[in-house]
């Protein structure tokens, strides 16, 4: 009986050890994971001094020359670029290009870090937060795909 219990315990231990770490990982949240990353890498161009998207769209050239993108310095504003009026925009811009036909990274991917490893780590943080990482635009997204967005605030 003792050897059977030991075998069962050992089997459970090994099974748990072999499960992907993501199954037990804490859920990525805006407050814990994205906001600090955003402040470190993105706030200079997308902070309080940046225009809201409606204003940015009126004069993209001017704001781009000023090194300002659309304002995204709050949970509510950033989520709009995941699953709101500009759904998918954040994913297209931060993507590494590995799942695109041309292999080109998004225009903001370079700002995720100083080197490849830092960019890869920070992209994974964004992907964990978003959940359903898709490069589709708002009009292309299905209701089912939208349900896959995690984007937890806290």
Description:
The protein is mostly helical and 154 residues long. The chain has one domain (23-147). It contains nine helices and no strands. Helix 2 packs antiparallel against helix 8. The longest helix is centred in the first third of the chain and has 17 residues, at 2-18. It is globular and about 75 Å long. The protein starts with a helix and ends in a 7-residue tail after the last helix. The relative contact order is 0.14. The model is unreliable at 13-24 (pLDDT under 50).
Low-confidence stretches: 13-24
Classify the helix fraction into a percent range: 40-55%
Strand content: under 5%
How many domain modules?
1
Structural shape: globular
Structural class: mainly alpha
Distance between the termini: 47 Å
| Number of DSSP helical runs | 9
Number of strands: 0
Order of helices and strands: HHHHHHHHH
Question: What Rg, in angstroms, do the CA atoms define?
Answer: 20 Å
- Average the pLDDT over all residues and give the rounded result: 88
| Main sheet makeup | none
SSE blueprint:
Layout: H1 2-18, H2 30-41, H3 43-46, H4 53-58, H5 60-65, H6 75-83, H7 89-94, H8 116-130, H9 143-147
Helix pairs in contact: 2-8
Q: In summary, what is this structure?
A:
By secondary structure, the protein is an all-alpha fold. It has helices spanning 2-18, 30-41, 43-46, 53-58, 60-65, 75-83, 89-94, 116-130, 143-147.
Structural features:
154 residues; mainly alpha
